[in-house]
Design goal:
By secondary structure, the protein is mainly β. It contains two helices and 21 strands. It is 3% helix and 49% strand. Strands 14, 15, 16, 17 and 18 form a five-stranded antiparallel sheet that branches. The chain has a four-stranded antiparallel sheet with strand order 1-21-20-19. A four-stranded antiparallel sheet has the order 2-3-4-5, with no helix packed on it.
Length: 299
């Protein structure tokens, strides 16, 4: 049985005292290598409460941290990278995934407002300025998605979720999507019996597209594992691990805003390892690793 190994200095990101927009929580991080450094775009929550509602959830923004070695944080921006704009993002933006296609980074995130949650897209080339591209699949209320890092037959590939299962869809322009179908289903009686969702964008490997994903059981315990998609046809699942790679057993995963959660949103391949960045208990960010050969050998 293979397992992700937690970094001994976890959590690597927590709320920052005195920084109003991320003073409480820093979690659910996207990750990508840019200019030789791991850029971590995370969900940040501070002192501002959601308006017009009684809830424990603060307003969410996106913050940026940078690591040279993938583990230790060398830089954390003093100001947020993105925040909610307009009525569609009235309560903020959450849970980003970042995919590099060509020379552009595509940031998929969740819009949160009264009556809806929806997927939206922004692009950047330098993690300094961001261009908002609007909603993805505006007719569907959902919150978990990632783009494949390459086009397939000239089209963008979106892996998304309509509970309880994962879906896959295609688009030429990132606006009109077609041929959406079920990619992977829940497994009754297993750790991922309740619902599943893509975690980081898939990583290209010699064996296939490596897709880390999260799942919950009937007790709503969030765990993480992995599957392989066919390189020539990403709609085909060619491998799927039976057991979780990571379960919420560390204190910062078991207790927090939402207990018993490990929720990856980012992964990179660096120095012969896969580094997986995840939210712990909807409060902090951790990183866990596994050797490339070790994990691919498990399929």
């Amino acid at each position: 049985m293979v397992r992700l190994k937690r970094y001994e200095k976890n959590p690597i990101l927590t709320g920052r005292e005195g920084v109003w927009w991320d003073s409480k929580y820093a979690y659910n991080p996207a990750a990508v290598i840019h200019e030789g450094k791991v850029h971590i775009l995370y969900r940040a929550e501070g002192d501002e409460k959601r308006k017009n509602i009684e809830t424990r959830w603060p307003v969410s923004r996106l913050g940026l941290a940078i690591s040279k070695n993938g583990y230790d944080i060398d830089e954390r921006l003093p100001d947020f990278a993105m925040e909610g704009e307009g009525p569609e993002e009235f309560w903020g933006i959450e849970d980003p995934r970042v995919t590099k296609i060509g020379d552009t980074y595509y940031v998929l995130y969740v819009q949160v407002a009264p009556q809806h949650t929806a997927l939206a897209l922004a692009t950047t080339k330098d993690f300094k300025t961001y261009k908002r591209r609007g909603r993805i699949m505006p007719e569907v209320q959902q919150r978990t998605s990632a783009l494949l890092p390459e086009k397939w037959k000239g089209e963008y590939v979106l892996i998304h979720r309509i509970r309880p299962n994962m879906q896959i869809a295609y688009s030429e322009d990132l606006k009109t999507w077609h041929d959406s179908k079920t990619l992977m289903e829940v497994r009754p009686g297993k750790w991922d019996a309740n619902y599943i969702g893509v975690s980081p964008p898939p990583l290209k490997t010699s064996k296939g597209w490596l897709m880390f994903y999260h799942g919950t059981n009937k007790e709503r315990v969030y765990c993480a594992s992995a599957a392989l998609l066919d390189l020539d046809d990403p709609s085909k699942v060619i491998g799927r691990l039976d057991e979780p790679l990571l379960e919420p057993t560390a204190p910062y995963e078991a207790k927090g805003l939402v207990p018993n959660v490990v929720y990856p949103c980012g992964a990179v391949e660096l120095n012969g390892e896969f580094l997986v960045y995840y939210g712990g208990a909807d409060a902090v960010t951790g990183v866990a690793s596994i050797g490339v050969d070790e994990l691919l050998g498990a399929f």
